[in-house]
Amino acid sequence: MKTANSSVANLRKTLVATTIASVLLAACAAAPLKPDGAAEARNELTQLQSDPNLGSRAPLAMKEADVAVSVAEQPQADRELGAYRVYLAERKVATARALAETRFAEDQRAAISARREKARLDARTHEANVAENQVATDRIAAASSEQDAAEMQRQIDALQAKATDRGLVLTLGDVLFESGRADLRAGADGKLNKLVAFLNKYPDRVVTIEGYTDSVGGEDYNQALSQRRADSVKSYLLREGIESGRVTASGMGENDPVAGNDSAMGRQQNRRVAVIINNPPTALR
Length: 285
What we know:
The protein has seven helices and five strands; from the N terminus they run ααααββαβαβαβ. It is of the alpha+beta class and 285 residues long. The chain has two domains: 17-139; 156-278, CATH 3.30.1330.60. α2 packs antiparallel against α3 (59-73) and α4 packs antiparallel against α5 (189-201).
């Protein structure tokens, strides 16, 4: 009797367990699940939001996409409705990405345009600065040229030289020499020192020294005397440091008189040394 009762009790327990298991299975089968594709939509949105170039752009579209993804992630027993929500979420995420990429491209174009405009402004500023500097340089050069011209005129005045087509001509009378001699007198260095100073200041100038005599005496004698006097002046310049290549000496004898030889005053004027300071060579253009 006890055995029969025990069997009945075991059967009841088995039936109860089976019933509970069936109910649980049915409940599990009927429980709503997260729709397929919702996780992928969330991952796509997360990548978009974390993109340094796109995440901060199109904020309204980003918010709408986030709401749509959140709705799609909700468990849904109706598979078709869940799939539709995932589709909407994917479209919202795609729309947000497209808007963000468009805004990024627009910002890039604006930045490029701004850089180009800045480059143009910088170029114009540079051109203006160059022009301004050139004007300042030209003014300084003009002032310097005026000062140089004034200084040269002062030097010319000190030499008592005359401007000619050949250059500056400095005429040294016979006071430089004793009559019939080619040695410089003791006090002859006054004008010659001024000539040395001029040549030192303007090293591009070269000089031609020409000696002349009056007509007293033989022609050959006068020719030789005029050459020795020109050489004496040249030697003085060389001793004072003027380079030999800048100085040429020639004896002209009694040729090319500047006055008549029929008077003492005329002969004195003809006994002279002319120093021609040649004009500087014109710069090639």
